[in-house]
Amino acid sequence: DVKVTQSSRYLVKRTGEKVFLECVQDMDHENMFWYRQDPGLGLRLIYFSYDVKMKEKGDIPEGYSVSREKKERFSLILESASTNQTSMYLCASSLRDGGYTFGSGTRLTVV
Amino acid sequence: AQTVTQSQPEMSVQEAETVTLSCTYDTSESNYYLFWYKQPPSRQMILVIRQEAYKQQNATENRFSVNFQKAAKSFSLKISDSQLGDTAMYFCAFMKHGSYSGAGSYQLTFGKGTKLSVIP
């Protein structure tokens, strides 16, 4: 089975900590995405990448950065975690013609 | 910019009945894709059905079918013979289609979702 793997299902971090969320795909997809999911707001795009070392801001990039050093791995970084970043984070990958494959999500709580 | 609207935050349906979830979108693009994704309580989002805007025929996948009205910018999902496993959040999503141009290409815009409960 092809898959997108997010390293943690649940994370609890303290305010001000630097947080890394890791995502790995085994499908040789060009595109990778990080979304944030909040009740009543749906999914909102944080960052995406269409090639190694390439990244583009999505709709809500503030407070986040990303890294894509290898094609299969796309990391989301919270430079200084804040309580308003408590959320579900979803990683996805796709080929050029769309059709995303999603990871299982990471529920991050910042206390 | 594209917007996707799902006007029904929650719906319920009796097992074996048919239910229709609504979705409208706003775009100035002429070529695009539309999707319905399902997110069960276990959380992993999976693709239910996909429609290319240039195709007049409505997409169908087993018990799932869409009613695509391009002029009205409407894309509803019909689930026939509802099953308990259909209980999930359903998201409508839009993607513009075109030649690959890096930024902005292949980005999905999601609606806020409809929570569907199938009642035994």
Features:
heterodimer, A: 111 residues, mainly beta, three-stranded antiparallel beta sheet, 12 strands, 60% strand, globular, B: 120 residues, Immunoglobulin-like, four-stranded antiparallel beta sheet, 50% strand
CATH topology of chain A: Immunoglobulin-like
Rg estimate of chain B, integer Å: 14 Å
**Tally of extended strands of chain A?**
12
- Output the structural class of chain B: mainly beta
Order of helices and strands of chain A: EEEEEEEEEEEE
CATH fold-level topology of chain B: Immunoglobulin-like
CATH architecture of chain A: Sandwich
CATH superfamily of chain B: Immunoglobulins
CATH architecture of chain B: Sandwich
Secondary structure layout:
The complex is a heterodimer of chains A (111) and B (120).
Chain A: E1 4-6, E2 10-13, E3 19-21, E4 23-25, E5 31-38, E6 42-51, E7 54-57, E8 64-70, E9 73-78, E10 87-95, E11 98-102, E12 106-110
Parallel strand pairs in A: 2-12
Antiparallel strand pairs in A: 1-4, 3-9, 5-6, 5-10, 6-7, 8-9, 10-11, 10-12
Chain B: E1 3-5, E2 10-14, E3 19-21, E4 24-26, E5 32-39, E6 46-52, E7 60-61, E8 64-69, E9 74-79, E10 88-96, E11 109-110, E12 114-119
Parallel strand pairs in B: 2-12
Antiparallel strand pairs in B: 1-4, 3-9, 5-6, 5-10, 7-8, 8-9, 10-11, 10-12
